[in-house]
UniProtKB/TrEMBL annotation:
Residues 1-23 are annotated as: Disordered. It comes from the Eukaryota. This is DUF4219 domain-containing protein. Residues 1-10 have a biased composition (Basic and acidic residues).
Length: 148
């Protein structure tokens, strides 16, 4: 694993993005300074409110319309269960600005993580959840909480 401490220029922002450097045993060697530097990048790019979770989208979980078997007056029949596809698509349109910011923040975050670190955040839905999960994983290793 590389211990190169140089920052690299982000393809998505042109800003210097700090690399998280992990020492032996998966203990972060520059975690505390890394999170402060990364916060500065997010603030410079006007993404901090999305990353911090202050700015949120209102997008419902997609429920697709489907045919189900249901008991109708004692007879099992095919019944159409109406989903929320139209509401979901409208929410995506209404929240397009937030989605763009979240994707940009996610890209910045992943550019400064190694492969092992990315696996800590791959199953979260938003960048705010990614950052919270990532910070939590380091807090579980005995580090003091940060103010994310």
């Amino acid at each position: 694993m590389s211990t190169d401490t140089e920052e690299k220029t982000s393809r998505s922002t042109g800003s210097k993005v700090p690399n998280l450097i992990r020492a032996k045993g998966h203990e972060p060697s520059n975690f505390h300074t890394w999170k402060i530097q990364l916060q500065a990048v997010f603030m410079e790019q006007e993404l901090w409110d999305v990353v911090y979770g202050k700015e949120k989208a209102n997008i419902p979980t997609l429920v697709k319309t489907k045919i189900i078997k249901a008991d109708v007056d004692g007879v099992v029949r095919d019944v159409k269960q109406i989903g929320n596809e139209a509401e979901y698509e409208q929410a995506l349109l209404d929240n397009a600005g937030w989605i763009k910011k979240d994707r940009k923040a996610w890209r910045i975050l992943t550019e400064c993580l190694d492969a092992d670190s990315i696996t800590l955040v791959e199953h979260s839905a938003t960048t705010a959840e990614h950052v919270a999960m990532f910070v939590y994983s380091f807090m579980a290793k005995g580090l003091k909480p940060c103010r994310y």
